[in-house]
Amino acid sequence: MPAYKIGRYWRFDKHEINTWIKSGRAADVDRGIVDKESIDE
Questions:
Q1: Confidence category of residue 3, pLDDT binned at 50, 70, 90
Q2: Contact of 9 with 17, CB cutoff 8 Å
Q3: How many structural domains compose the chain?
Q4: Within a 10 A sphere around the Cβ of 28, how many other Cβ atoms?
């Protein structure tokens, strides 16, 4: 699913989603490594 569609569903900005994916945090979530503080940023 394209990032902009995910962003609309979750009410995040397209730019925020793309930055999050490019920063590697999306991969961290898949591995279960992300803590609550990093999600709240």
A1: low
A2: no
A3: 1
A4: 14
What is the helix, strand, coil percentage profile of the chain, to 5?
Answer: 70, 0, 30
Query: What count of other Cβ atoms lies within 10 Å of the Cβ of residue 11?
Result: 6
Q: Please tell me the total number of residues recorded for the chain in this structure.
A: 41
pLDDT tens per residue, range 9-19: 666 677 777 77
What is the domain extent for residue 36?
Answer: 3-40
Angle at which helices 3-10 and 14-22 cross, to 10°: 120
Model confidence pTM above 0.85? no
